[in-house]
């Protein structure tokens, strides 16, 4: 299968003033995970184990762990649950690498296998997909955490 | 790239086929904001861990 130019990965990097073992927990432990992503998480950090994060209370990201190398590297597949979604559960892959840098760690995240260009049959589902994403972003105000809307939000 | 319309408080986007760049842009922001929160949380944990070590190092190698 040809690799199209359009399928370049999304890559992000962040330097964190903490050692890798502190950061690693945030990718494999549900209680740590929900402190930076999602409202609940179901994680089995072993190859083939489930990776499922309810990102907003409505939008669920799901995949499987592919590689779990403690304090060094985590790879999991990724997609969104729901009909008509072009990024289906397990259809793309996220690689996270933890590189020590003095007393800090550089976290590299690479998300690849995303739907390709105009010829990709998934393209027609993107309106649905971005509709869901637009809801998660709310009305364009980033705020401290625009994704989180837990079911208990109404109660005061 | 995107057709946009409003529905109540929501903004609905319809993506033209060439809109795949938008998907990547969205995910770039998605992970960027996520990693920023990860940084805050991990650094907070590390501060707590270091403080505990300073306070109760007794018996540790």
Q: Would you write up a description of this structure?
A:
The complex is a heterodimer of chains A (156) and B (61). Chain A is α+β, with helices and mostly antiparallel strands. Chain A contains three helices and seven strands, in the order E-H-H-E-E-E-E-E-E-H. Chain A has a seven-stranded antiparallel beta sheet with strand order 1-7-6-5-4-3-2. Chain A is globular. The N terminus and C terminus of chain A are likely disordered. By secondary structure, chain B is of the alpha+beta class. Chain B contains one helix and two strands. The N and C termini of chain B lie far apart (60 Å).
Short synopsis of the structure:
With 156 residues, chain A is α+β, with helices and mostly antiparallel strands. Chain A is built from three helices and seven strands; from the N terminus they run E-H-H-E-E-E-E-E-E-H.
Structural class of chain A: alpha+beta
Mean pLDDT of chain B: 77
Percentage of helical residues of chain A?
10-25%
Q: How much beta of chain A, percentage-wise? A: 25-35%
Terminal Cα span of chain B: 60 Å
Average pLDDT of chain A: 80
Supply the key terms.
heterodimer, A: 156 residues, alpha+beta, seven-stranded antiparallel β-sheet, disordered N terminus, disordered C terminus, B: 61 residues, two-stranded antiparallel sheet, 1 helix, 2 strands, 20% strand
Itemize the secondary structure elements and their pairings.
The complex is a heterodimer of chains A (156) and B (61).
Chain A: E1 10-16, H1 20-28, H2 30-33, E2 40-43, E3 50-54, E4 60-69, E5 73-78, E6 92-101, E7 104-112, H3 126-137
Antiparallel strand pairs in A: 1-7, 2-3, 3-4, 4-5, 5-6, 6-7
Chain B: E1 2-7, E2 10-15, H1 20-55
Antiparallel strand pairs in B: 1-2
